[in-house]
Write a structure and sequence with these properties.
six-stranded antiparallel beta sheet; 340 residues; mainly beta
Length: 340
């Protein structure tokens, strides 16, 4: 279940400067902390609360099972809030969800059955609880961020369920009433984090669908009304790999690969209405844009893991209509995983 990781990863804070009559065209990149040795693989998005950032490392910690950490937004005060030991979870592969002064997250393995867990911990590091240990029948390997709706958390697992192809689940923030809302019936690897719009959840799978290149789906929060909104075909992209962004009645997301009738090219961005109509490719020139998109007004911001002048990734912006694509910054010595 482990994921490949180098012995040293770094994360960065992106500070955007607003220029007169321009829209966030300048960017400065500060390295806040360099991971080494006991804390490795911080490959998930960061969660902010005031002037403090929270995250997880997939490995490292006291027992090399991963950790939860905090750091001040200015780079000072790095501290490990919790180290996983296996029975309480292992390999936290998703970012944290903040509710009040409590952080919620998942581990992809560990727990009572070694199929992963859901956990909570206070922002000061106290009060750690394992809210649920997956058994396989109710899901296995949760590896995407949890989504909050009221006092309920929604999430996905990459395997387990009735067909062992992954699930959509819900659980109350106090750890009660875990429900399997939907079990996928075809190989649907890389089931991403869910996006909540009203009483409907939207998401993607990295495989499966009528063409086995991934899908966009919706399901009601009570588990009814599951729909496949779009099945990717090579000529309109394949392997969607990030949480969808919802703007009005339109969903936006990224694809790892886009193929023309003549060649396979880099990934890109797409949009689709929430009813599945009007699918469009907005951009097809990005190298592995696997991070979730951030929305500000009518502009989308994101990152790529590769590409740019140095081949290590870029920061970019694009309008929701597909116009005004801008590269905000180029990376020299790290792969970019997420924008804070």
């Amino acid at each position: 279940m482990g994921r490949a990781a180098g012995s040293r990863r770094r994360f960065a804070r992106l500070a955007f400067e607003r220029l007169e009559d321009r829209h966030l065209l300048a960017v400065t990149l500060d390295t806040l902390h360099s991971f080494a040795g006991e804390q490795v693989a911080p490959a998930t998005p960061l969660t902010s609360a005031g002037s403090i950032l929270y995250g997880v490392t997939e490995y490292g910690g006291n027992d090399s099972q991963g950790s939860v950490y905090a750091i001040n937004a200015n780079g000072a005060g790095y501290r490990v809030l919790y180290s996983f030991s296996g029975l309480d979870g292992s390999d936290p592969a998703a970012g944290l969800t903040l509710v009040g002064s409590t952080l919620y997250g998942t581990t992809a393995s560990g727990g009572n059955y070694d199929y992963g867990t859901i956990f909570s911990i206070n922002t000061n590091g106290s009060g750690f609880q394992t809210l649920h240990s997956f058994s396989g029948n109710d899901g296995a390997e949760p590896a995407a961020n949890l989504t909050l709706g009221g006092s309920t958390l929604y999430g996905t697992t990459e395997s387990g369920g009735s067909s062992d192809d992954g699930t959509i689940f819900s659980i109350n923030t106090d750890g009660s009433d875990l429900q399997t809302l939907y079990s996928f019936s075809t190989a649907s690897i890389d089931v991403g984090a869910l996006t909540l719009g009203g009483s409907t959840l939207y998401g993607t799978t990295g495989a499966g669908g009528s063409n086995d290149h991934g899908t966009i789906f919706s399901v009601n929060t009570n588990g009814t009304g599951f729909q496949t909104l779009d099945s990717f075909y090579p000529y309109d992209g394949q392997t969607p790999d990030s949480q969808l962004a919802l703007v009005g009645s339109t969903l936006y997301g990224t694809i790892e690969t886009y193929t023309t009738p003549f060649s396979s090219v880099a990934g890109g961005l797409f949009s689709v209405n929430i009813n599945g109509s009007n699918f469009q490719i907005l951009n097809n020139s990005l190298d592995y844009p696997t991070s979730s998109l951030t929305v500000s007004g009518s502009t989308l911001y994101g990152t790529t893991e590769m590409g740019g002048n140095n081949g290590f990734g870029t920061l970019y912006s694009i309008h929701t209509d597909g116009s005004s694509f801008t590269t905000l910054g180029l990376q020299r010595n790290l792969w970019v995983k997420s924008v804070v």
